[in-house]
Amino acid sequence: MNLEQLTQQTIEIVRQASSFIQQEAALFSRDKIEYKDLNNLVSYVDKEAEKLLVAGLNALLPEASFITEEGTTGQEPDPSALNWIIDPLDGTTNFIHGIPVYCVSVGLARGKELLVGVIHEPSLNEMFYAWQGGGAWCNGKQMKVSNVESLADSLIATGFPYYKFEKQKRYMYILELLMQKTHGIRRMGAAAVDLAYVAAGRFDGFYEYNLNSWDMAAGVLMIKEGGGTVTDFNGGDNYLFGGDIIAAAGGHKELVEVIRENF
Question: Which of 1, 19, 106, 208 has a CA between 20 and 30 Å from the CA of residue 234?
């Protein structure tokens, strides 16, 4: 499998889905929202973009299965298989409210081994991508994580889960601690964008719990290929299907310590 060539082909498929999303952004109205839960929203745009991605990627690599946010394939996911891991529109709530921070995220993994990652942020026309052993890139320029070596010099991104609120007090306490130990905290509303920005050296770290594999797969590969470190909240490797993640440059160890001790 030529991963560089496969990445370039994946980029074109992702670009088509992004074009559809941007066309619909100009026409979208809030009466087209569907609710998975009170604050977990979905639209026809998510579903149609996912169908476009699945059709293109299935033709590209027929032997791969799919793990997708909207479940349009009807497949029962097997995390140990060769899988395309797709979030057709990460940042749906931003999209619905006209906030231009959202993206298409596509990863390819064999089990937990990440092979390809592509994230396109259509509002800025930034295409982030990586393949195993090939580095991380944005619009043709190689990316590296920041050279920040301490938590005190770090700008950190996070997100707020839309369920399991019983952990929210501890999570907010960690937020309070990090506000006093860093350059600041940012909440963009799209985890895949956050991870791409860590890979690009814009953010120095990111953490969140209750994420899904489609939020993380592509961005995690970019961070690793860009020289960063990725773990779960305990400092282990159970992040892709485990739900919680800490991804950072030089301040990773300190970030793990703060979160592990208080969560």
Answer: 106
